[in-house]
Amino acid sequence: MRVKAAAHINTGKGIKWRSHEPSRIETFSDAVFAFALTLIVISMEVPKSFDMLVETMKGTVSFAVCFGLLFNIWNSQNMFFRRYGLTDSYIVALNAILLFVVLVYTYPLKFLFELVFLDDKSQAAMIHNWQIQSLMLIYSAGFITIYILFYLMYRHAQKSAAELQLTSAEIYATKTVKYMNLICICISLVAIGLALISPRDAAVSGFVYCTFPIAYFVWFSYRGKKGRKLFPQLA
Fold first, then answer.
1. What is the pLDDT of residues 123-164, one digit of tens each?
2. Quick check: 178 and 158 in contact, CB under 8 A?
3. How far apart are CA 145 and CA 122, in angstroms?
4. How far apart are CA 130 and CA 206, in angstroms?
5. Element at 32 (helix H, strand E)
6. CA 6, 9, 15 angle in degrees (round to 5)?
7. What distance in Å separates the CA atoms of residue 94 and residue 80, rounded to the nearest whole number?
8. Rounded CA gap, 127 and 115, in Å?
9. Whether 199 contacts 130, CB under 8 Å
10. What Å distances lie between residue 67 and 14, 73, 124, 160, 181, CA to CA?
11. How far is 209 from 142, CA to CA, in rounded Å?
């Protein structure tokens, strides 16, 4: 099945798949991500009344956001291994740190988004104003760590271009993703800076992350347009 999928994807555009079957490190990674999702769900008790069911359903939105973020991290990690198939000690170490961060931040992630979708009274019961700064710093530190790890992974793939026999177009695409991770790091640093500068309004720093989709669109549009000029055969 993966061989057929790779044949469909390896059409000459982008970075072709060099790994067709999941390695043991990927299988282990999938189990860790599944466990992280389980931790998010298992914290919700089975409702014993309709009123409790309604209260439980209110957490669906926060769960959906957490699921989306975890899925995005899993997909980024999965695409890296599909594209390059690297399983050397350096990549294994970076991947292990990534999985550790995912597990550590599972509860803080759910806490944050449950907080976001509550009313002011419920929010006041969960956290004090002076604690919001610490929450945003913890959240931002996790984001920065994850994107630093992806940056290092793609930088390593770029350095292994000769070993992997990457084409010029694939090296260009690798650099594109590598620098996108660097942009995400910079955005997270801006969020941390805002939280440190204005502790009373630290929650505002969270809105900085809303620029992620814009940054992705602008950067990949720019690099895609430039790439089509450099490599017209891929257009």
1. 777 788 888 899 899 999 999 999 999 999 999 999 999 999
2. yes
3. 30
4. 16
5. helix 24-42
6. 100
7. 12
8. 8
9. yes
10. 27, 10, 25, 33, 20
11. 13
Burial (CB count within 10 angstroms: exposed 0-12, middle 13-18, buried 19+), residue 222: exposed
Percent of the chain with pLDDT strictly greater than 90 = 54
Alpha-carbon gap, residue 169 to 41, rounded angstroms: 42
Residue 150: partners with Cβ closer than 8 Å, 6 or more residues away:
76, 77, 80, 98, 181
Q: Could you read off the pLDDT of 191-235 as tens digits, one per residue? A: 999 999 988 888 888 889 999 999 999 999 999 999 999 988 665
What string of DSSP letters covers 125-136?
A: HH--HHHHHHHH
Q: How far apart are CA 49 and CA 41, in angstroms?
A: 19
Nearest CA to 231 among 173, 179, 157? 173
What letter represents residue 8's amino acid? Answer: H
CA angle 83, 88, 92 (to 5 degrees): 85
The answer, as to whether pTM is greater than 0.70, is: yes
127, 135 Cβ separation under 8 angstroms: yes
